[in-house]
Write a structure and sequence with these properties.
The longest helix has 27 residues. The chain has a seven-stranded parallel beta sheet with strand order 10-11-9-12-13-8-14, with helices on both faces. The chain has a five-stranded mixed beta sheet with strand order 1-2-3-4-5. The protein is elongated and about 85 Å long. About 35% of the residues lie in helices and about 15% in strands. The protein is an alpha/beta fold and about 475 residues long.
Length: about 475
């Protein structure tokens, strides 16, 4: 309830940390008065949990500490069978506990600068304002309680009790630096491993990785007042771990188009959409067979399979196999096709990994499977759905500039894919504006390779088949 109430806040630029836990070691960071040598806890259980705060709100010029006490187990004050004396005692006890937790967090924040603004509250989502008299606490302490009615109109409550009480002015440079230091430290503590305090776990790098995971999951984007972000389909939530999608991504996953070309920059969710569609097809029928082409980095010599692709398939119990394109080198097209067909007898999905170094510069980046081009092989596909993750074209900057100037671009593969899509799914993701690995100098060529693909697909596909994703999954900003 509190989480959703915070989501609905339309004003303010702030970060909300949910379930902020900290260890003894982390809590005393920066405390020059803490004697670690003589502290028994530091010697024995420094990594044990020291405390927790339900919500920590980090705003540009203030902090808010929020504790939540449901208290549903002690009954409602309107219930005739409720023991009001026991209820009052329980309320007083839980409030004092929340006050101790709040004060501990306030002390931690102000350790770095006593003049930082820190507000603190306790939420009782199951208690109405009429129960105030049951708390038996001072009026000052009572004013720090958020009741059920407050949550129902939380924006107005926040304005009256937070926004209007905090000066909406930039902090003094000295305080701003201190505020940023505390903000960064809170983020690092929230993201690091609580059980192992070493450099590999408790580091800013680890923090960035963890935050990245949370951002990719869409957990930071969903706001009830944002119509462009909606809950993702159940299969995406359960298997990919992504709670929310942009509306455009959601609509693409449910598209009935056989041929779909998805264009967009990094972070736009192209791979997410492809994986969601693959999962839909694979789980709807075991007869649906899929080949997924993906490009991997030349420098990753130890990679045996693309984890971001095969792990979701494993999680959904979809049988899959990852192979390198080079495993089928020097073989004719029909033999390669039979080999792929053999793999699909035991698996629903075959992932073919293509290293960029494997592209044949003599064949416009298309002859990557030995003596046969992709178009030669795919032309034989029957009953196979084809997906491309990050479709690219690779050109030698010296060999092909003249050919490109003369418009001799080989459209064999795109045309073959277009023909295949009359019967089977062909979904392709691509960054149209992404430069090829071997960039052709501007002065040597009229149009760069990927722009040629733009021309082909805009001339061939309908508006519902050619889609550009421009919204970032992480924050729905226009890329």
């Amino acid at each position: 309830i509190v989480y959703r109430a915070l989501e609905k806040l339309s004003e303010g630029d702030f970060i909300v940390l949910h379930s902020f836990e900290y260890t003894h070691f982390q809590y005393y960071l920066g405390d020059l008065t803490h004697d670690k040598r003589n502290c028994k806890t530091c010697k024995k259980t420094a990594t044990n949990r020291e405390g927790e705060s339900d919500f920590v709100v980090i705003a540009p010029n203030y902090f808010v500490i929020i504790e939540v006490k449901n208290m549903g187990h002690i009954g409602n004050q309107s219930d005739p069978g409720c023991n009001k004396d026991q209820q009052s005692q329980a309320l007083a006890k839980t409030f004092q506990k929340s006050l101790d937790q709040r004060n501990k967090m306030v002390q931690f924040v102000k350790r770095f600068c006593k003049r930082l603004t820190v507000l603190q509250f306790t939420v009782y989502p199951n208690f109405e304002k009429a129960s105030k008299k049951e708390f038996l606490i001072s009026r000052d302490k009572l004013s720090s309680i958020i009741f059920k009615e407050d949550l129902e109109d939380f924006s107005d409550w926040w304005k009256d009790n937070v926004s209007d009480l905090v000066l909406d002015e930039p902090l003094h440079p000295e305080f701003r630096t201190k505020h940023e230091d505390v903000r960064n430290l809170l983020l690092v503590i929230w993201c690091t491993d609580k059980t192992i305090c070493d450099k590999s776990k408790c580091s800013l790098g680890k923090c960035i990785v963890k935050i990245g995971e949370q951002l990719r999951s869409g957990r930071f984007t969903f706001r009830c007042n944002n119509p462009d972000v909606i809950p993702s389909p159940k299969i995406v939530q359960d298997v990919l771990g992504i709670d929310n999608l942009t509306k455009q991504q959601y609509d693409l996953i449910h598209s009935n188009e056989k041929l779909l070309w998805i264009n967009g920059p990094a972070g736009a969710g192209k791979t997410v959409v492809l994986l969601a569609k693959i999962l839909q097809l694979a789980l709807s029928s075991e007869d649906n067979k899929i080949v997924l082409f993906c490009e991997i980095c030349d420098t990753d010599e130890v990679m045996t399979s693309p984890e971001h692709l095969h792990k979701p398939l494993d999680k959904a119990d979809v049988k899959n196999l990852s192979i390198f394109a080079t495993e089928m080198a020097e073989k004719p097209a029909d033999e390669i096709y039979r080999k792929i067909r053999g793999y699909l007898e035991e698996n629903q999905v075959v992932i073919i990994m293509i290293r960029s170094a494997n592209y044949d510069r003599e064949c416009y980046g298309l002859k990557i499977l030995g003596n046969s081009s992709q178009s030669d092989i795919i032309r034989l596909f029957e009953g196979i759905n084809v997906f491309y993750d990050d479709f690219r074209v690779h050109f030698d900057c010296n060999t092909h500039s003249t050919l490109l100037e003369n418009n001799n671009f080989d459209y064999g593969l795109p045309e073959t894919l277009f023909e295949l899509s009359h019967s089977w799914h062909v979904w392709i993701s691509c960054d149209m504006l992404q430069s090829p690995l071997l960039m052709i100098p501007v002065e040597k060529v009229t149009l760069r390779p990927n722009y040629r693909l733009v021309n082909f697909f805009t001339d061939t596909l309908s508006s519902t088949q050619l889609v550009s994703l421009s919204k970032n999954l992480r924050n729905t900003s226009d890329l």
